[in-house]
């Protein structure tokens, strides 16, 4: 088993969106923002779209808000509607459903990207932080042709994955884990233990190309 290691944050700036806020002035999303998420999901067959209000200005949504494209020279932050839900410094977007119990499964087409992160994050995580380096997020990242399991700046290499065109994400809120799924077998490739203390939602980081989400799916047989 790979031993968790601590490294400097792997997130990189989106290219042209340095926030004017200093680290000492980082703030959490307001409670009013929490109420703006469409609904809370507690059952299976989670159906979600991407929440444009959370999308960093370098990210464009497409296909009825189920896909994400990274634009290195995206919108000038001053031209994006100010919203407390929007990620200000990192190329991150959240799903529009919060989850507080149950077991949920979705898939992501990743064949057109070489750098991304997939998983879950607390709905109220700081919009000045990045998924994977925040302790309020649990994701699987792909960069430099390698996979990693990431949370709170702890990074564990994930091997024997390759670069499939499409992968699955399995969230078991009550059992406290997130799994990366090989949809061809199907099997869970790696699990990431999580101590959930608040509602979470699907979370995505993107620094190259595009990805497409697929929700409302049944969990494949045989996953444990």
Automatic annotation (TrEMBL):
Pfam families: PRY, SPRY. This is SPRY domain containing 4. SMART domains: SPRY (SM00449). Residues 28-222 form the B30.2/SPRY domain.
